[in-house]
Every structure is written in structure tokens, then in C-alpha cells.
Amino acid sequence: MPSEAAALTKRDCKLPESGWDELILAGSRPEVGSGWTDDGKSYEVRGLKRRAQKTTRPVPIPPVLVQLLRWHLDTYGAAPDGRPFRAVRGGRVRSTEYTEVWQEARRAALPAAEVHTPLAEVPYAARHAGISLWIKAGVDPVDVARRAGHSIAVLWKFYARLLRGQQNRANQLIDDVLNL
Hints:
Elements (H helix, E strand, L loop, with lengths): L1 H6 L13 E5 L31 E5 L1 H14 L18 H15 L14 H13 L4 H8 L3 H12 L3 H12 L2
Antiparallel strand pairs: 1-2
């Protein structure tokens, strides 16, 4: 989520030279507008959504993202408070800024006929696409929910159509175990 990425610090990132590792999400900095905060900032510092205040959530990241984040930190460094992602003047990256970059990336990545469609219309679509990919790849739904920071109930509610229809694959997995 953008609010979790905004709260991420360099110390939350385990970035080995190669292989998988994880980010340890410890908080959130959602953009709420300065009129809604006590200190006049356009964001709030919060714990993770629907979790106890000091709870953390490990998020496994694949080698390609480990390398991208390593490159980003090597190239741009981190803000004085350790945040790897910051605006030009060092503050929080606002939703208008990353949405603008997202739209440029869509124009570069999508065929011209699909640029004006709803496909990947907003940055949050990448989260949905990632979760859908994990499900289609056969990752255990319990692990998918954990990685996404969802409960199983939320996963079923929003991704049920992807979770269903895997009967042939399930049958094959059961056959493989029974035929050992």
C-alpha cells in the first residue's frame, strides 16, 4: 500500500546480494489532508491497518525487487529519517506525484489501444495484480492473505473467483500425494 511504502525505512529492508528476502512493515503514513490532522501535516503516522499499534508485518520480496530496491538506495540514498522514497524536496511522496509517474509508465508500457482503458488505471491495481498472480501461481491462500496483509475472509471476499476453479489442479496435488 502507498501508505506503508511511505512509512518504510532503510532499516526495515533486508536486502541480500541475491535471493529472496523481506521488508518488515512497521507503520503507515496515509495521506489524509492537512485539515484532518492535529499538526497540520498532510499525512498521519499510524500503525498497520487493523493491527495492534506496535505490530510488524513481514512481506517477502522476490530477487528482482530486492535488486531494484538495492539499486534505488545505492543511486538515491535515503532521507535523513531513513525513508528510501521521498519527494524532490525530501518530504513525503504525495499521491498526485506517484499517480502522475504511474500514468507515464502506463503510456510507456501499454499498447496505445489500452492506454485509455481501465487496465492498471491506478497504482493500487498493481497490488491487486500481484495478489491475483500469487493465487494463480498456486500459492497457498493462507500465505497469500498473510503476504497481502489480509484476513482469509477478505481474501475470499475479493478474490473468490480466482480461488475457485482450481479443482483439476487440486485433484492432481491430491493424486500426487496418494500415489507416493
